[in-house]
C-alpha cells in the first residue's frame, strides 16, 4: 500500500480488525519512510460497477461519493456514523445485487433518496434540493408539500 503522505511504496500493517458491522477490515498502517500513520478499509467487491451519467458519460462506481453525499445531507443532524455506514453498505449491496455492471446514475440517486427518507426527513429534503435541482423557492415548497408537512405541524 502506497503512503498517502510521501508516496513511499511499502507501508506496514500495525493492526487489523473487522469493522463493527463486519463488512470490512480496518487496517492501521505505518510508513517507515516518513513515519506517518493512516487507516485503510478493505471491503468485498462483488463486481466492478460503472455509473452511467445522464449525458451517457460512464465512470467507475465510487462508494465514497455516496458516503460523502449522505454525510453532507446529514450534517449537524442526530444520526450516528455507524448508521450512515450501514445505510451506505445497504445501498452498495443493492446496487451489486441488481445484476448489472452499468447502472444509471438516477438509480443510485433514488436509492440514496429512499435511504435518507427513512433515516432523517431534514437530510432527505436537503439531498432532494440538490438532486432534484430546485431552481426557485416554489420548487422547494412543492416538494415539501408532497411530503405531507405543513407550517401548522
Characterize the structure shown.
There is one protein chain. 42% of the residues lie in helices and 20% in strands. It is an alpha+beta fold and 153 residues long. The protein has two domains: 8-44, no CATH class; 48-147. The strands form two sheets. Strands 1-2-3 form a three-stranded antiparallel beta sheet, with no helix packed on it. It has a three-stranded mixed beta sheet with strand order 5-4-6. Strand 2 and strand 3 form a beta hairpin. Helix 3 packs antiparallel against helix 4. The longest helix is centred in the middle third of the chain and has 17 residues, at 81-97. The N and C termini lie far apart (53 Å).
Oligomeric state as shown: single chain
The ordered string of helix (H) and strand (E) elements is: EEEEEHHEHHH
Q: Classify the helix fraction into a percent range.
A: 40-55%
The number of helical elements comes to 5
Number of DSSP strands?
Answer: 6
Strand order of the largest sheet: 1-2-3
- Radius of gyration in whole Å, from Cα? 19 Å
Give the CA-CA distance, first to last residue: 53 Å
The total number of structural domains is: 2
Low-confidence stretches: none
Pairing-aware structural class of the strands and helices? alpha+beta
Q: Summarize model confidence as the mean pLDDT.
A: 85
**Shape assignment:** elongated
Beta-strand residue fraction:
15-25%
Q: Main beta sheet, described?
A: 3 strands, antiparallel
Features:
single chain; 153 residues; alpha+beta; 2 domains; 3-stranded antiparallel β-sheet; 3-stranded mixed β-sheet; 5 helices; 42% helix; elongated
Amino acid at each position: 500500500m502506497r503512503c498517502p503522505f510521501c508516496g513511499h511504496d511499502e507501508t506496514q500493517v500495525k493492526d487489523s480488525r473487522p469493522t463493527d458491522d463486519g463488512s470490512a477490515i480496518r487496517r492501521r498502517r505505518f510508513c517507515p519512510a516518513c513515519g506517518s500513520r493512516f487507516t485503510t478499509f478493505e471491503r468485498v467487491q462483488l463486481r466492478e460497477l460503472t455509473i452511467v451519467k445522464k449525458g451517457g458519460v460512464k465512470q467507475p462506481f465510487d462508494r465514497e461519493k455516496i458516503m460523502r453525499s449522505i454525510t453532507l445531507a446529514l450534517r449537524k443532524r442526530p444520526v450516528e456514523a455507524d448508521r450512515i455506514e450501514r445505510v451506505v453498505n445497504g445501498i452498495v449491496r443493492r446496487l451489486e445485487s441488481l445484476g448489472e455492471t452499468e447502472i444509471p446514475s438516477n438509480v443510485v440517486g433514488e436509492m440514496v433518496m429512499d435511504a435518507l427518507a427513512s433515516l432523517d426527513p431534514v437530510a432527505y429534503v436537503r439531498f432532494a434540493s440538490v438532486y432534484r435541482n430546485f431552481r426557485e423557492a416554489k420548487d422547494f415548497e412543492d416538494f415539501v408539500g408532497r411530503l405531507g408537512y405543513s407550517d401548522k405541524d
